[in-house]
Amino acid sequence: MYILAAIILLIVMALALIRAFKGPTLYDRILAVNTFGTKTVLLIAIVNFLAGRQDFLDIAIVYALINFISVIGILRFFEYSTKLPLDEDL
Amino acid sequence: MEMLLDILSWILLASGSFFCLTGALGLLRFPDFFTRIHATGITDTMGAGLILIGLMLQASNWIVFAKLFIILLFSLLAAATACHAMAKAAIKSGLKPQTKDNREIEPEEQPSKP
To answer: Which end of chain A is more exposed for a tag (fewer CB within 10 A), N or C?
Structure first.
């Protein structure tokens, strides 16, 4: 049953990557990358149980912290920088 | 007792995966940034919470349980905060929500009705 959840999470990450490459505005890409990071934390926690090792959960905690801080940092950077033309590709 | 915990954990994992899948479909199919953030903001919290609770039922000792509980608490806090920050940054930088009046933003995704 861990295999089923891991495969579904991989499909979800692939769909988020499609949106991150396709997304018309910058914020669509940030949202897709944030979703990708959240699902990566869940995937690492499931792989911990699949592999039978206990030290993957530390990696999951660190990944969750880094994901949140990086998304907030990117948003701060773009919120207070100059007004970007939103429909362009970056 | 063990079998009951296994069945409950399997149900929680399957429903959490289902929520994650619906969130990803919403992220891919919805027409606007604010509808997409609605889809993923809700299902991120729900799916992550269900999957982590389902894994917590399978924990072999208390330290695995505690680490999963820390991840659960942090993801409950962080998903909502990140979604709020993204919507606020998008509004402040001038991204307008799609309404009935300005629907011609992405004309190739609208089906042509006779």
So the answer is: C
Q: Which long-range contacts (CB under 8 A, 24 or more apart) does A68-71 make?
A: A68/B74, A68/B78, A68/B81, A68/B82, A70/A37, A71/A30, A71/A33, A71/A34, A71/A37, A71/B82, A71/B85, A71/B86
Sorted by where each begins, the domain ranges of chain A are 2-79
Tokens of B28: 């891919």
Decide if B10 touches A, using CB distance below 8 A.
Answer: yes
Q: Is the pLDDT of residue A86 over 60?
A: no
In single-letter form, the type of residue at position B86 comes to M
Suggest the residue from A25, A38, A46, A48 to mutate for an interface test with chain B (most B CBs closer than 10 A): A38
Residues 6+ apart with CB under 8 A from B29: none
Question: Residue A90: is its pLDDT beyond 90?
Answer: no
Alpha carbon separation from B23 to A64, A65, B26, B42 (Å, rounded): 19, 22, 5, 8
Query: pLDDT of B40-85, one tens digit each?
Result: 888 888 899 999 999 999 888 899 999 999 999 999 998 889 999 8
